[in-house]
Fold:
Amino acid sequence: MGVFRTMSAATRDVVLAASAAAAVLVAALLEGAPAAAALPLSVVVAAPLLVRRRFPVTAAIGSAVVALAGAGIPEWSGRLVALAAFCSAAYHAPHPVLLLNLSIGWTAALLLVANRVSGAGTVAEAVVMGIAPVAAGYALRLSREHARQSARLHEVEAARQIAEENGRVARDVHDAVGHHLTAIRMQAGAARHVLRGDDVPPAAGTALATIDGLAAAALTDVRCLLHDLRAAPTLAGRAGVRALAQRLTTAECPIGVTDHDPDVRLPAAVARAGYRVLQEAVTNAVRHAGATRIDIRIGRGPREITITVTDDGKAGPPECATAGHGLRGMRERIDALGGSLRIEAHEPHGWTVVAVLPVAEAGA
Structure:
């Protein structure tokens, strides 16, 4: 299995198709099927598996047609390959209802060709046999999407924690180191002013000037480092918001974005805080709401910017609606800027998070 996983997708499909053809052929020959009929049918029924990723529905239909054509050979089990093709199609293609109808119809036709019609029992058998491979493939698809979504949520949460830690470190460095460097410059300048005169040794004046220059250079370097440490995606422009939506979008829960004019200039503090609030709201909606659709709307008024995250989930309120870290972090950012946060249910089901951040005074 380890070697199989290291192969490219195309190579794995070739190995799978060849293995399926060989297995069906060997089983048929052991059961006494004529080799002249079993050999070509086994190869042809497995051939569509070569394109099962690019054309999943077509591959399933192709295998099903060949299996139906070979149903007259009782010892040939090509129908198992067709079942596997339907399972693979349900895993790769976003058309479960179409595949379900095709699978049930093919199974019913197979039973008719094999003369296994016996009234209601045949219908039940066709339905069960038709549903089984599609249900298995779709279950595997959901499991894959859940794993991907969990990984994305983990990445977003890790990025948020790193950003918060960077912000904390930046504040501490600014308050401590920046304060002391500024004090050194002030003291050096005061000493130079007091010690002016002919009786001051030249070395002392030079040393004080050097101290002042070094402190100024160090203060500039610290400010540059803090700027880089605080650097993060912002709400200004489409790139950051759409990248966030794309990271958390899944086949079962797409995230739509309706954003404001990307050319609108926002104060840096509002742009940073707004992005973090949006990130928290969307992450909570994805994680807790059980939604099939999430919409992000960012509107700009004359005095504020409004961030709205709406989902159609049927679960309880998002985590941030409780007294958890999500709500506290969002409220702290919004309160610091004098904004407001509202979380409410809407009909028939779902939740809406509305954050309003004032921008008029800072942007004027």
Summary: Strands lie at 255-258, 294-300, 304-311, 340-345, 351-358. The chain is about 65% helix and 10% strand. Residues 160-230 form one domain.
